Amino acid sequence: PPSQVMLQWNDGSWEHRAYWGANQIPWGVNGTDSRRNMGPLPATGQWVRLEVPASLVGLEGRVLNGAAFTLFGGRATWDRSGRSSGSVPTPTPTPAFSSVPVASPISSPTAMAFAPDGRLFVCQQTGPLRVIENGALLATPFVTLTVNSSGERGLLGVAFDPDFATNQFVYVYSGAARTLLRIVAKNPRVLREVA
After folding, report:
1. Cα 17 → chain centroid
2. Span 92-114, average pLDDT
3. For the residues 130-156, what does the mean pLDDT come to?
4. Closest CA to 3 of 42, 31, 53
5. Overall average pLDDT of the 124-134 stretch
6. Taking the chain, what is the end-to-end CA distance rounded to the nearest angstrom?
7. Half-sphere exposure (Cβ direction) of 157: Cα atoms closer than 13 Å
8. Which CA distances in Å does 171 have to 76, 116, 143, 154?
9. What pLDDT score does 130 carry?
10. How does pLDDT run across 15-70, given as a tens digit for each residue?
11. Which of 195, 117, 105, 118 is nearest to 157 (CA)?
């Protein structure tokens, strides 16, 4: 999805803008009619009605010559646009998902993947590869690797071999060393470095 969605209007000048999400498009002055923050990005994967009161962007009583729809990254599909008389109620968005805690405590998680056998493997930036089985976090990590976890480094990825049911291979990626390791799930140990 885009990181910013911006609507712009022209009344002889394009200095009338409203945006949702990150403040990455540098046109106008943030916090003024020329670039007004309307809040977080709307929900993705569904139609959402975007409304901006004319008074927030200096357009109350003005005649428009045009409008523009601008994104920073990603893509969006636009439908009808126009002026609302205020008589049409704004629909309440239906959440596209709900947040449900799975397990805790897991500090600094960086990636996760489901194994074909149903276990959820979670990378921790500092090196442990944790396992959630039948809804419970196992007390002992699957494996703990020695990694450089400063900044955006550490244990960053986990994937399963397409033939996991037979060979039990789990692949993990450590960003600092740019190392891909293959681990055997039957007996958690580092089998060998792949690349």
Report:
1. 25
2. 77
3. 87
4. 42
5. 91
6. 32
7. 13
8. 35, 14, 12, 14
9. 92
10. 999 999 999 998 999 999 999 999 999 888 788 888 899 999 999 888 888 888 88
11. 195
80 contacts: CB under 8 Å, gap ≥ 6: none
β-strands 36-37, 16-21: how paired?
Answer: parallel
Residue count of the chain: 195
- What 3-state class would DSSP assign to 166? helix
User: What is the per-residue pLDDT across 155-185, written as a single tens digit (0 to 9) for each?
Assistant: 888 999 898 888 888 888 887 556 667 777 6
Could you give the CA distance from residue 187 to residue 193 in angstroms, rounded to a whole number? Answer: 16
Contacts of 22 (CB under 8 A, 6+ apart): 3, 4, 72
| Cα torsion through 100, 105, 106, 108, rounded to 10 | 100
3-class SS string, 109-120: EEEEEECCCCCE
> What pLDDT sits at residue 191?
47
Torsion sign over Cα 43, 46, 51, 52: positive
Question: Which amino acid is it at 51?
Answer: E
Centroid of chain to Cα 23: 16
Q: What is the pLDDT of residue 192?
A: 47
b/e map of 36-46 (b: 16 or more CB within 10 Å)?
Answer: bebeebbeeee
Cα 115 to chain centroid, rounded: 22
